[in-house]
């Protein structure tokens, strides 16, 4: 999965990129916003991939190597997971109230994988994010880069089965 298949994160309509862009702008796109920007990326996407790192580096005019260094140094940050497919469940307030916990529990029961883990066969990585910025769609998850909203447990498992070919 790619975090988001985007040609240009700066003009993307994806609310996750908008959250990141807003954080960087709030700091005048200055280098000192690096850690906070990575926090926002982590919270919006559930992990930080190359596309996000490159975007942050260019926007803040910080060398990519430094962005990578910071992202790998702090345990708080998660780099792109190893699974062939990725499901990021939003556990922000709105999504949590609407049942994000049940979605995670159902995945754990069915695939034996909890948040932050990848299935033994390497097919699926499950992660959590703090808010995708589209709370009206709660509970929401991003499966292989596509946002899915108002999810039920059955629908989530059905989508995942399809994606991982079960
Ligand atoms: S709380 Fe889930 S998208 Fe905002």
Q: Report the uncertain regions.
A: none
CATH topology of the largest domain: Glutaredoxin
Largest sheet: 5 strands, mixed
The helix fraction, in percent, is 40-55%
Enumerate how many helices there are, as a single number. Answer: 7
How many β-strand runs? 5
CATH homologous superfamily placement of the largest domain:
Glutaredoxin
What global shape is seen? globular
Could you report the average pLDDT, rounded to the nearest whole number?
94
What is the CA-CA span between the terminal residues?
Answer: 18 Å
What is the CATH first-level class name of the largest domain?
Answer: Alpha Beta
Rg, please? 16 Å
The percent range for strand residues is 5-15%
For the biggest β-sheet, the strand order reads 2-3-1-4-5
* Count of domains: 2
What structural category arises from helix and sheet content? alpha+beta
Query: Which small-molecule species are bound to the chains here?
Result: FE2/S2 (inorganic) cluster
Task: Write down the secondary-structure element order.
Answer: HHHHEHHEEEEH
């Amino acid at each position: 999965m790619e975090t988001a298949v985007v040609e240009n994160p700066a003009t993307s309509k994806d609310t996750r990129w908008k959250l990141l862009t807003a954080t960087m702008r709030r700091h005048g796109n200055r280098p000192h916003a690096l850690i906070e920007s990575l926090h926002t990326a982590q919270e919006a996407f559930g992990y930080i991939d190359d596309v996000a790192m490159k975007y942050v580096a260019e926007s803040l005019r910080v060398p990519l190597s430094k962005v990578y260094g910071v992202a790998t140094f702090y345990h708080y940050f998660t780099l792109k997971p190893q699974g062939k497919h990725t499901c990021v469940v939003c556990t922000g307030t709105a999504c949590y109230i609407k049942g994000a916990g049940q979605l995670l529990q159902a995945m754990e029961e069915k695939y034996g994988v909890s948040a932050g883990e990848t299935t033994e066969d390497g097919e699926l990585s499950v992660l959590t994010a703090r808010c995708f910025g589209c709370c009206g769609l709660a509970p929401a998850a991003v499966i292989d880069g596509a946002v899915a909203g108002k999810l039920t447990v059955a629908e989530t498992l059905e989508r995942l089965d399809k994606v991982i070919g079960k």
